[in-house]
Amino acid sequence: MACAYKDPATAVGLILGTGTNACYIENLDKVGTWNGDLDDDEPRQVIINMEWGAFGDNGRLNLIRTKYDEEVDLSSINPGKQM
Fold it and tell me: What is the pTM of this model?
């Protein structure tokens, strides 16, 4: 999202590497957990960091995994992790 400083049209940041992660710009009036100031002089947007790295832990998404997912996982250097 650092690119948003150079290009205000930037709306999403995405990391694809060993793991994945994403963030996006959201208007403060849509952020139910915001408990900061809402001064008129302050920006009305925040960056939401998704932190989805542990999404599906504890087998919660096993029902949608395919035999190909299993094959890739078993042949990886970290079977059972970073799925």
Answer: 0.54
